[in-house]
TrEMBL record:
The keyword Signal applies. NCBIfam families: chp_HNE_0200 (TIGR03806). The keyword rRNA processing does not apply. This is Lipoprotein.
C-alpha cells in the first residue's frame, strides 16, 4: 500500500468522507462562518493511506474515519452560528444573516483550518478532528495518489445507511488531495500534490457544494480555482518504468455536478458525495497504534448513529484482490465505484442510457448484456454495451480502454487508461457464457 505525501498524518477524531472531486455550481462569494480547528497533532504516529489500492480505482469518491482520541474534543471547524445583524436600509427591517451551520468558503485551503504544515515542509497533515479515511476500492483518477479526510462538526453525527451515501450533517467537510510521485517505483519520494477538492454540506436549500483548490509551485498553499486548471504535459514514471504524459485536468466547479449528482422527483439535480458509503468504508485504518474498523471507530466517537452489528454491514471487496471475492463481484465493485454515480436510475446519464452499473442492479439487460446503447454514437467499439464472452466487441470495455477524447468513459476525470481496470472488465466479460446478440 502506498504512503501518501501527507507524512505522519495526525489521525484524530472521526471518520468518513467522500469525495470526491470538487467543483460545482454556486456563487463565488459563498460567505459563511468557520472557526479554525485546533492545529495540534492528534498524536497519531501512523501514515494514512494515499487512497491508491491496486491502481487507485478510486472520487470519488469518499469514506471517512475519525482519527482522534476517544475522549477528546472535536477540534475541527465549529458550526457557523447565525449572525442576526440589523439591516437599517432594508424594508424588511432585519437581516437574519446566513443560516446556522453555514461554513465560510475561504480563498486558500489553509483558511479552513483543517490542516497544519505544508507539502513543501513535509509536514502537511490533518488537524485533530479532521479524519483520514480509506476506501476498500477507490475510484481511478489517472493513477494519482489520494489522501482523503472527513470533518464532522462537534456535537453532530452521521446517520448510517446500508446502501446509500451516509447522511452527513450540515457543516461536514470532505477533502481529497491528488498527488503524483515523480516515479511510482519510489512512491514516497518527490511527491507533488496538484489539487485538493473540498465538498462542504451547507444548510438547505444549498446542500452539498464543491470547491477545487490548486497547489502553487512552491507547495506552500492551495488557492481556490473555480474555473479549474490544466497542468499541460504533466509527466511521471509508472510502476513499470514507463514515462506517462497527460494534460491533467482540475475540473471547474460546474463540472463536478457531472459526476456528483442525483436527480430528484422534480428533475432537479443535487450534488452528492460518491464514496462515503458503508460498503466502501467497512475496512480497517490505523488510528494511533492499533488498526480499527473505520465505521466502528466513527460510531465509538459518537459520529455515526444507527450502525448495526458488524456482520450486518455490507462490504465492497478490493476489486484487485482475487482473495477477497470472485471475478464477478470484483468487476461489479469496480463498475459500482467508478461508473455507477452516473449510471444509475437517479442520475441523468443512467436515465438517458438506461445502463445501470450500480451494485444493486441484477437485470442483465440493464447491466448492458446484448443491449444497444441509447446515445453512444458510432465508432465506440461495437453494437452492444456487453457482448457476453467477447470483450473486444463490447462497447463498455472499449470506452474504458480507449484514450480518445469524446469516446472514453468517464468523459472527465481521466486522460489515461486504467490498465488494471480495463483488464478486469475484459476478464469478466470473457468469462461470461458466450451469447449471440441480435
Amino acid at each position: 500500500m502506498r504512503s501518501p505525501y501527507m507524512t505522519r498524518l495526525g489521525l484524530a477524531a472521526v471518520l468518513l468522507a467522500a469525495a470526491v472531486a470538487a467543483c460545482s455550481g454556486g456563487n463565488e462569494d459563498d460567505t459563511h462562518i468557520i472557526d479554525p480547528p485546533d492545529a495540534g497533532d492528534a498524536g497519531d504516529a501512523s501514515t494514512p493511506d494515499a487512497g491508491l489500492d491496486a491502481g487507485d480505482s478510486g472520487p470519488g469518491e469518499d469514506g471517512g474515519t475519525d482519527a482522534g482520541d476517544d475522549g477528546g474534543t472535536d477540534a475541527g471547524p465549529e458550526d457557523g452560528g447565525s449572525d442576526a445583524g440589523t439591516d437599517a436600509g432594508s424594508d424588511a427591517g432585519t437581516d437574519a444573516g446566513p443560516p446556522p451551520g453555514t461554513v465560510t468558503i475561504p480563498n486558500e485551503l489553509s483558511g479552513y483550518g483543517l490542516f497544519t504544515g505544508t507539502p513543501a515542509g513535509g509536514d502537511f497533515k490533518p488537524v485533530e478532528g479532521n479524519l483520514p479515511y480509506e476506501l476498500t476500492t477507490p475510484l481511478f483518477s489517472d493513477y494519482s495518489l489520494k489522501s482523503r479526510t472527513l470533518y464532522i462538526p462537534a456535537g453532530k453525527a452521521a446517520l448510517y445507511s446500508a446502501d446509500a451515501v451516509l447522511d452527513l450533517p450540515v457543516g461536514t467537510i470532505i477533502t481529497k488531495t491528488f498527488a503524483f510521485p515523480a516515479d511510482f517505483r519510489e512512491p514516497t519520494k518527490n511527491v507533488r500534490p496538484l489539487e485538493t477538492r473540498v465538498l462542504v454540506r451547507q444548510p438547505q436549500p444549498v446542500g452539498w457544494v464543491a470547491y477545487p483548490y490548486v497547489w502553487n509551485d512552491a507547495l506552500t498553499e492551495a488557492t481556490l480555482a473555480s474555473g479549474g486548471k490544466v497542468f499541460k504535459d504533466f509527466s511521471f514514471i509508472d510502476e513499470q518504468g514507463v514515462t506517462k504524459k497527460l494534460d491533467y485536468l482540475v475540473p471547474q466547479r460546474n463540472q463536478c455536478q457531472k459526476c456528483h449528482h442525483v436527480v430528484d422527483e422534480q428533475d432537479n439535480q443535487h450534488l452528492l458525495p460518491i464514496g462515503v458509503k458503508a460498503r466502501y468504508l467497512n475496512r480497517e485504518h490505523t488510528y494511533g497504534v492499533q488498526p480499527v474498523n473505520q465505521l466502528q471507530h466513527l460510531a465509538s466517537l459518537g459520529k455515526l448513529e444507527g450502525l448495526p452489528p458488524a456482520a450486518q454491514v455490507p462490504r465492497a471487496p478490493d476489486a484487485f484482490n482475487a482473495g477477497e471475492a470472485d471475478l464477478t463481484q470484483r468487476a461489479r465493485t469496480y463498475l459500482d465505484i467508478n461508473c455507477a454515480h452516473c449510471h444509475n436510475p437517479k442520475a441523468q446519464p443512467g436515465i438517458t442510457s438506461r445502463l445501470f452499473l450500480d451494485i444493486k442492479t441484477t437485470d442483465e439487460f440493464s447491466l448492458g448484456y446484448c443491449k444497444r446503447p441509447g446515445s453512444a454514437g458510432g465508432g465506440v467499439g461495437g453494437e452492444f454495451d456487453i457482448v457476453p464472452g467477447s470483450h473486444d466487441t463490447s462497447i463498455l470495455w472499449f470506452r474504458m480502454h480507449t484514450e480518445v477524447s469524446g469516446k472514453m468513459m468517464p468523459e472527465i476525470g481521466r486522460a489515461l487508461r486504467h490498465e488494471a481496470g480495463a483488464q478486469l472488465i475484459a476478464d469478466w466479460i470473457d468469462a461470461m457464457p458466450p451469447r449471440s446478440c441480435k
